[in-house]
């Protein structure tokens, strides 16, 4: 396994040292192979909003597995969860399930291009949308130049149709529409940035993108792989009252199993095969075990007060941390939207990719390792979101 990990963010490259090998999780806790117990604020990078091994989720998975793990044919469970997604999002009338967030965003781009007949896309520097070629441009790294691939193996011809905007700056997107008024298929954005650390959208940012895309007959894609069912039941679209044209989902809708999804209006989704000419497929897509985990998760998230309680819990954690840092006279900026937040070692406001990069990374690395010694497992990077689950308590 390259680097000993199946996804590079697990490698602790940003904080130094060797990753924990985890053997077990229960509620808010995880245990490593040496038997150490930690409070877990990674929560599998977002999916585990109910914590580890939630009883109903495990029961649903067990039942689904006993019923047969995969058929490659339509099943009731995938229709049940499709209905839950359609009910949660005003902008979604049809949804297609895939196996990861990467597949969801990759397919959403293809759909936007197929529907509009245009080739260019706009993404934001510091925005991560999975590892498909067109989206691996300024994906959370320092490459600020226009259309320069972030990864070896992504050719310039793939990257040249990817235009870069500046998060929280609608004028940067307007400039692209001025330059290419008829060529931009879509603007794809994390409505709350999560992959440069949590950066909430300015008041006018999302509305600005909505207005610009409408004006130019382009599509607005919200990548809600993190924010979907996280910042509200109906994601960022419910929280900020703005509807996207295409929504990408993942993480929470799979309840800890591998899932992604993309959804839109019935008209736009009619472009997708077998209804339309845009091809997209998957042997294990809509997998019954994954669908069962997702259904059991969403059902629990429908209970009244869940999101208020989650937000309050995260707020009290943030307030406590802020107090401790103030006492120690260490500058700390906490950006939080509901139960996702990032501790930036930064004296100033963090509201853009540029201000994110002004944070003290080494300081964070030291803090990460000291917290680990105290039995708290944080995301091993200064620019990732930490997540609070319903299983976390006020106990230390
Ligand atoms: N979009 C966003 C906003 C993400 O945070 C991620 C993964 N962290 C992805 C897409 C890709 O999802 P996956 O890792 O499931 O391919």
Automatic annotation (TrEMBL):
Pathway(s) the chain acts in: Porphyrin-containing compound metabolism; protoporphyrin-IX biosynthesis; 5-aminolevulinate from L-glutamyl-tRNA(Glu): step 2/2
Single GO term (MF): pyridoxal phosphate binding
Organism name: Geodia barretti (Barrett's horny sponge)
PROSITE patterns for the chain: AA_TRANSFER_CLASS_3 (PS00600)
Cofactors that this protein relies on: pyridoxal 5'-phosphate
Family of the protein in this entry: Belongs to the class-III pyridoxal-phosphate-dependent aminotransferase family. HemL subfamily.
Source lineage: Eukaryota, Metazoa, Porifera, Demospongiae, Heteroscleromorpha
Identification of the protein by name: glutamate-1-semialdehyde 2,1-aminomutase
Recorded superkingdom: Eukaryota
The protein's enzyme class: isomerase
């Amino acid at each position: 396994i390259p680097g000993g990990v199946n996804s590079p963010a697990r490698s602790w490259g940003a904080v130094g040292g060797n990753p924990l090998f985890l053997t077990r999780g229960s509620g808010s806790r995880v245990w490593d192979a040496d038997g150490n117990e930690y409070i877990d604020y990674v929560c599998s990078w977002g999916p585990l909003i109910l914590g580890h091994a939630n009883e109903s989720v495990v029961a649903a998975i067990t039942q689904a597995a006993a019923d047969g793990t995969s058929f490659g044919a339509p099943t009731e469970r995938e229709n049940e969860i499709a209905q839950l997604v359609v009910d949660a999002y005003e902008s979604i009338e049809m949804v297609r399930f895939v196996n990861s967030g990467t597949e969801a965003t990759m397919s959403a781009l293809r759909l936007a291009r197929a529907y509009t007949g245009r080739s260019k896309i706009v993404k934001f520097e510091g925005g991560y949308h999975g590892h498909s070629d067109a989206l691996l441009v300024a994906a959370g790294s320092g490459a600020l130049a226009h259309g320069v691939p972030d990864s070896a193996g992504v050719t310039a011809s793939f990257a040249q149709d990817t235009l870069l905007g500046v998060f929280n700056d609608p004028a940067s997107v307007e400039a692209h529409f001025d330059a290419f008024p008829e060529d931009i298929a879509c603007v794809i954005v994390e409505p709350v940035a999560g992959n440069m650390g949590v950066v909430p959208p300015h008041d006018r940012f999302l509305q600005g993108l909505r207005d610009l895309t409408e004006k130019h007959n382009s599509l607005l894609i919200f990548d809600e792989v993190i924010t979907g069912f996280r910042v509200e039941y109906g994601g960022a679209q419910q929280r900020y009252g703005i509807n996207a044209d295409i929504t990408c989902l993942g993480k929470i809708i799979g309840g800890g199993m591998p899932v992604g999804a993309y959804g839109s209006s019935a008209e736009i989704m009619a472009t997708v095969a077998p209804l339309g000419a845009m091809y997209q497929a998957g042997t294990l897509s809509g997998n019954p075990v994954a669908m069962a985990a997702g259904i059991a998760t969403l059902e629990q998230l429908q209970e009244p007060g869940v999101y208020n309680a989650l937000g309050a819990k995260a707020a009290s954690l943030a307030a406590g941390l802020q107090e401790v840092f103030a006492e120690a006279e260490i500058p700390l900026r906490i950006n939080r939207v509901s139960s996702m937040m990032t501790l930036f070692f930064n004296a100033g406001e963090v509201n853009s990719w540029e201000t994110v990069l002004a944070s003290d990374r080494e300081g964070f690395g030291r803090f990460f390792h000291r917290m680990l010694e105290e039995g708290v497992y944080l995301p091993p990077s200064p620019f990732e979101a930490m997540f609070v689950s319903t299983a976390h308590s006020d106990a230390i």
